[in-house]
Amino acid sequence: MTTSTPASGIYLVADAASTAGRPLADIVAAAVASGITTIQLRCKDLSARDFLAEVAACAAHTAGRALLLVNDRVDVYLAARSAGITVDGVHIGQKDLPADAVRDLIGPEAVLGLSASTAEHFAAVAALPAGTVDYLGTGAVRPTPTKKDHPTPLGFDGLARLISRAPLPCVAIGGLGHGDAAGIHAAGAAGMAVVRAICAAQDPGIAAASLRAEWAAATEGAR
Q1: Which residues of the chain have pLDDT under 50?
Q2: Which helix H or strand E contains 60, and what residues bound it?
């Protein structure tokens, strides 16, 4: 059973290359302890075997407390699930396996997120059978060094225009951090993904708690 909606609130992309040399599982543990309920593991430079080990280490902190999603590597997700590791789904990009093929592989209960940054991407998602994709990762809002092949930055206004056409809830991503929650919420995003704002913070737990408080204030202020 999942513990939250993946597209809502502060969403941590736990990037193995952005931890300032600290264990990724320690970052995840601190974030979850501070109330972050969706963790996506991004380990671009690791082998499948090492990525699987990271999933196992992080799952010890997320199981029953937060959703744990695997970035790109459907094979790693399937291996983790086969090994009995508590893992909840995958997040894929436009260059990965097609979303309908991934859904067939992971089954109907797993979470599936898809990066989508253009109206054409949104139209393609809308044409899929209902339930194929659960949420969209939308950006980049700003340039970001954590993903060198990011799309042309949208800015807040561009994000709002794009989200107005979204067929599913959107998590905004791309160079986001402290001070951005109100603008991201106002643009219509259901959630805000962060990487360095937590992963590279001096105290990831304090950073996560602060971001959660900013998001809560933004949602309360909009009521």
Answers
A1: 1-3
A2: helix 48-62
